[in-house]
Specification:
The structure is a homotrimer of 433-residue chains.
Chain A: H1 13-32, E1 33-35, H2 42-73, H3 81-107, E2 114-116, H4 118-134, H5 144-168, H6 177-196, H7 211-233, H8 240-267, H9 275-289, H10 299-328, H11 336-354, H12 360-387, H13 412-415, H14 418-432
Parallel strand pairs in A: 1-2
Helix pairs in contact in A: 1-3, 2-3, 2-4, 2-7, 3-4, 3-5, 4-5, 4-6, 5-6, 5-12, 6-11, 6-12, 7-8, 7-9, 8-9, 8-10, 9-10, 9-11, 10-11, 11-12
Protein name (chains A, B, C): Ammonium transporter AmtB-like domain-containing protein
Organism (chains A, B, C): Taeniopygia guttata (Zebra finch)
Keywords (chains A, B, C): Membrane, Transmembrane, Transmembrane helix
């Protein structure tokens, strides 16, 4: 494993960028952010306590999903697991803080003050999710600085897009199917297209998952699968709507899990299942159901939506991703188009059908989808072009997908105790020879 | 690693079976299943919200146990981890949906409609647990199709047995010790006996756990250990009974954890602990306590029960499993008899003692145990005979315990980067030679 | 890998010690411990149910932190993962039960009875945390018997120290920064100093983390990071105080996560991040914030505290730990001084500032810190001297950091399938040669 010559690689940009950001955040908080006044009345205290009990468990579930579940899902690259986990964690924190600032300025700025509460943190966390999804398109081939610049651009664009879609167009999307999944997918693809331009990315030798990296990644999928209902239902109206959102998500994801096995097995000539299909297809139902989760639709429609989204996800991996790579030289490392794009569009289409009798609203849903797709793709292309700046230090091809570029980490071969073992084998042989 | 000749192996049965099932489920849902009507009154809404808050966190805990905890526990087979995790996940979803249908038809069919709610999903999940436990007896030597057929048979038999035990006999068993653990253990052993007949299964070279597979499996145990109180307490009466069930489960499992170390250390001549004992014994208290968890018994009895169940579990691994294998040619891959059978019987016996002053009820508890043991063993033997059908494609011995039979997965040696490393070692040697 | 001659190693002490303890606990429970009487009134039942719903989710979160999160964090030693996970689990159970007995006798003994409830279990769990932290100083070089004796000594000393600090001095410390983190850090360092005396511990070949052990450890960090707010907030007054504690912890830990990257990157000449910094620094904010979490301080101060604690943690790893090792021959395996000591002192200092306007209270906070530091160091030194008793079987240096000393576990090289592979490589070569 070659060491990277430190002279050729700008090592100080990352701490400088993050340090300045953290300092600016501190200043911003010192000037504008306060907590709510402690309430003197016992009734108010009960109210706050109830809010804590009704929101906090959902919030924790979502944190587990993003920090542990999504982090592990990204460790399928066998020599890039530490980077994937760390970058995901870093981007979540950065984006959440950045969204907190922007949302505070835009929506919650009253008399020179921003009142912070758990609900505002939750909303910022939702904004951060878009970044975590988008980076999936360029995972392993981008430097941390590039990812941070990408997050810096994506958060305000997301907030603008979400404002247009939800506030102006009045789109119903309780689980973020359109506003989060579709938006972040096409933003990520735009970035990838602009960053890698017309050059087709060759298959990197470190890109192929191993059994153990695939296993870790599947554990991540399962964690996401378990907690997904919390993500969809947290912002629902308590009571019937929330209950329905939980049930719909559970049903859709259960249908996805089984249909993924069917589709993956039929797709491959020898009937073997592909780990990548399982890791993504099982979650497709959760992506699609978000936009209709709290609507009063028949349970059978939920099952159908969950199954269909798993099918399009698996077909996406089988046919569309290779096609996009070949025809459009579009690189999509984690297949976010199959997990977030296609099922998201499917869900949006379902929502159009679900509110068809409502006339106007159906048009709004369709318009929201168009905005989420178009605006994000355009903004992604522009962001991707900015990421090409040389100072952001995109890693050279031969150092991609490798933890040792960013971390003081043991060489992987050593790490498995291999060198010594191979040496032992060799020595044993020597004696025999 | 040899490739399986795809001509000799029926690859299309699995997707066909699952696809038809999913289609039939869709039809069934379309015809009969609806959600509760949204309630117009604010009071009702509050009621629903409270039910969500009181049930949903327990439900999520149980999902984590079954999907992540149990899944990881089964990854102790070093080359079969991906299969264990995926089959467990698939069986959970399949069995849950199948139980939903059957329970809907049997218990909740009113005026041609089945009203779906979170509680009914939870009950179906409990039914699915029996399948996940039973397959432990034949893990690694059965095809997915065999496992699915086993689930198809086990769910209705469980529902019948549970109806007899709880409804007819009035057995008290809030944590499912008799109805779930004892039942599924003897069902699984019956299947194993009938499937492998009188031939003693030889020790397979891929059967021995490695350090890293044992570590993953222990993480699974710990996840199960942490969330077990939710499993026992979720169906308790809220208030004192639920509080007591939580405390009893915590105490029993804590005693199990310590006693397992004592028993395992005393059993082995060199005093070293066996990973298998730790992975199972620590959970034995949770199995045994279920049937008495909400009863008003002294905390000391809880501790004693937890300790005793760990002792019988470890002794079971040390003496009974080898004996059963030798004398009865009974194969029990995961030792489900030691984790679910023996502690379950112990718990049932404890429940007889606990309600002894109640006369009649003590007899009922004993009768319930007899039904759970006898009926499940008989049904398991019949099911196992059916699994022997050639079309279900039991894998040949040399391909057992191997992920590559069902998954497009890297060879394990490659996956650890070994080939290249060994080659490097060899090349380095070559140069020296 | 050499086998340990079983004659030279006292194998029966561990089961004897634990078995006697478990028996004595059983006796104690039989004589003194009861549950609360079931309450007949519906109102009381509602009250109990509400307490269960408000405490139990927090309790489960803390169990996940200690059993899974902390356990995984300690698996950074590549050949000692199974031991780290098991010893952590065993010590938690042992210490919790031991604390339950002592606290029952000291605080809750009324008319010859101790009423057990979830809150008392939670308090005992907090006591157990001190042991889990302290053992980090000597991880890998101490036998299980030594760790158990250490726990036996530490729990009563903690209870005494906590009584002095909280009850006598009236120190405010809702998240245990002073009473738990600072106390256990200096206790652990005292033990380490007395146990290893003036001999500097050489770097052991098995001490260096590998990529995969570092990855598992980071997963542990992330689990701790996610659930930390529950640990800090569980004992807060429900309502505003608890809400504030959750927000403060979230903010502080988010600032820690980002600042750790800044500090670690600046510290290393080549700008690469050190896994050890990330694993610990990200949590430093949670340690520091505990003592002020429920106070009405500005959010900006929380951010500053989180950032600062990450900086001192990383600097501690970079400069102080090597210095202490060289100058004071003080051995600190997991760097508990950097994660618990320095941020804890920082948090205590912040609490002095936060209550400065309150006069008297500021002095109390400072006095509490002094007691926690001084008493624990002294007690740790005495305990460490006792651990040196030959009968406690400190493992010889060459057998340290190795699972195979205590567990019937596959050799690590074998476990990765290496021997066979290296052999295959060698054989392949042979053919070529």
């Amino acid at each position: 494993m070659m060491a990277v010559p430190s002279s050729t690689y700008p090592r100080r940009l990352l701490p400088l960028f993050l340090g300045l950001f953290q300092g600016a955040l501190l200043l911003f908080f010192a000037l504008f952010v306060i907590y709510d006044e402690p309430s003197a009345q016992a009734e108010d205290t009960n109210l706050v306590a109830n809010q804590v009990y009704s929101t906090f468990p959902f919030f924790q579930d979502i944190q587990v999903m993003l920090v542990v579940g999504l982090g592990l899902l990204l460790t399928f690259l066998p020599r890039y697991g530490f980077s994937a986990l760390t970058h995901n964690f870093l981007l979540l924190n950065f984006s959440m803080q950045w969204a907190l600032v922007l949302q505070g300025l835009l929506h919650h700025f009253h008399h020179g003050q921003i009142h912070l509460d758990l609900h505002k943190l939750l909303i910022s966390e939702f904004a951060a999710v878009t970044v975590l999804i988008s980076v999936g398109a360029i995972l392993g081939r981008a430097s941390p600085c590039q990812l941070l610049v990408m997050a810096t651009c994506e958060i305000p664009i997301y907030l603008a897009s979400e404002w247009v879609i939800v506030t102006c167009l009045g789109v119903l999307d309780v689980g973020g199917t359109i506003t989060i999944h579709v938006f972040s997918c096409y933003f990520g693809l735009g970035v990838s297209k602009a960053l890698f331009k017309a050059t087709q990315q060759p298959l990197h030798p470190k890109e192929t998952p191993t059994t153990s990296s695939d296993l870790m990644s599947l554990v991540g999928t399962l964690i996401l699968w378990v907690f997904w209902p919390s993500f969809v239902a947290v912002l629902c109206q308590p009571g019937d709507a929330q209950h329905r959102a939980i049930l719909n998500t559970l049903l859709a994801m259960s249908a996805s899990a089984i249909t993924t096995v069917v589709a993956s097995s039929l797709l491959e000539r020898d009937g073997k299942l592909s780990p990548g299909h399982l890791q993504n297809g099982s979650l497709a139902g959760g992506v699609a159901i978000g936009v209709v989760a709290d609507m009063a639709m028949p349970p059978a429609a939920t099952l159908a939506l969950g199954s269909l989204s798993a099918v399009v996800c698996v077909l996406g991996f089988g046919f569309l991703t290779p096609l996009l790579r070949r025809k459009l030289t579009l690189h999509d490392q984690c297949g976010i188009h199959n997990l977030h794009g296609l099922p998201g569009i499917l869900g949006a289409a379902a929502s159009v059908v679900a509110v068809l009798w409502w006339g106007q609203q159906a048009l709004c849903q369709a318009a929201g989808l168009a905005v989420a797709t178009g605006a994000s793709l355009l903004a992604g292309l522009l962001t991707g072009a900015a990421l090409g700046l040389p100072c952001l230090a995109r890693p050279p091809e031969r150092l991609c997908f490798d933890d040792s570029l960013y971390f003081k980490i043991q060489d992987q071969a050593e790490s498995a105790g291999l060198d010594s073992s191979a040496e032992e084998g060799a020595l044993a042989l020597k004696e025999r020879v």
